[in-house]
Amino acid sequence: MHIYLYEPRSNALAGLLSELNEAHWEPVAVTDDFFERQLDLLGSDGYADRPVLLSGHPRIVEHIARLRKSGCRNPILVLRDQRDPEAAMEALDAGADDDIVGPVTGLELRSRVNAITRRFHGHAAASVHIGDVTAYFDGRDPDVAGQPMKLSQRELAIFQQIALAAPRLVSKSRIYDAVYGMAEEQPFDKVIDVYICRIRKKIEEMSPLGDPHIRTIRGRGYKLAPEIVEKADGPVALRPSDHSEHEVQKAQLG
User: Do 113 and 9 fall within a single domain?
Assistant: First the structure.
């Protein structure tokens, strides 16, 4: 997961970068210029989930206000060296989601960001159940039919984007930008299709009904949905017509 990190002090920056890397973050160090000229980036599809972590610098309230005024909805966290209730109140009132007194580990930051992100997407609980699949928002691999399904780090990052949007659809461009947007090497967007094909196959193999659960809506994106949905005139079974599209077929279910 990418995180924007604002820490003007070089010594403190080096320590934070090391801590975040150990917790499998992909930190992007930013300067004052980021808040003055590059905020349009955060409004791009796929960037809205990326947290912004600011150190307890005198300009952080100004930066937070500028972020929120620009329409930024990203999680914003403030990290302080020592407790300062008045400064914390100012930061939270300006639009910060959390104000933390250090030292703090990268894993704790991940948990705090996960909580903010899932609420942003309308999920109050730490997991969501879709058919045979249980998706967790704390970095764990999902369960299928009660059994853990092992995913690679990249597969999990892509699956998380689909799960966070559930039951809504998420576009391929949003997934791509969320996973690869700040990477030095930019693969072709077809890589998303390849990873989703792998994830679908793993779910299908573990699902009692052989249901891949990830639906492809041609030209629009993907959604996490069970094979059987309820309709007014009875159950409807979804059967894949190919790897990129599904047709709705009525089935008589006993």
Answer: yes
For 187-200, write each residue's pLDDT tens digit: 777 899 999 999 99
The most distant pair of C-alpha atoms in the chain lies apart, rounded to whole Å, by 67
Cα torsion through 149, 243, 186, 5, rounded to 10? -40
The reply to whether 20 and 80 lie within a common domain is yes
- Split into its structural domains, the chain has a count of 2
Residue 78 phi, psi dihedral angles, 5° rounding: -115, 135
- With helix as H, strand as E and coil as C, how does 170-224 read? ECHHHHHHHHHCCCCCCCCCHHHHHHHHHHHHHHHHHCCCCCCCEEEECCCEEEE
CA 201 to chain centroid, in Å, comes to 22
pTM of model > 0.70 = no
Residues with Cβ within 8 Å of 54's Cβ and at least 6 positions away in sequence, in order, are 6, 7, 60, 63, 64, 76, 77, 78, 79, 96
Is 245 within a domain? no
Domain containing 10 equals: 2-121
Query: What are the pLDDT digits (tens) for 110-131?
Result: 888 888 888 888 888 889 999 9
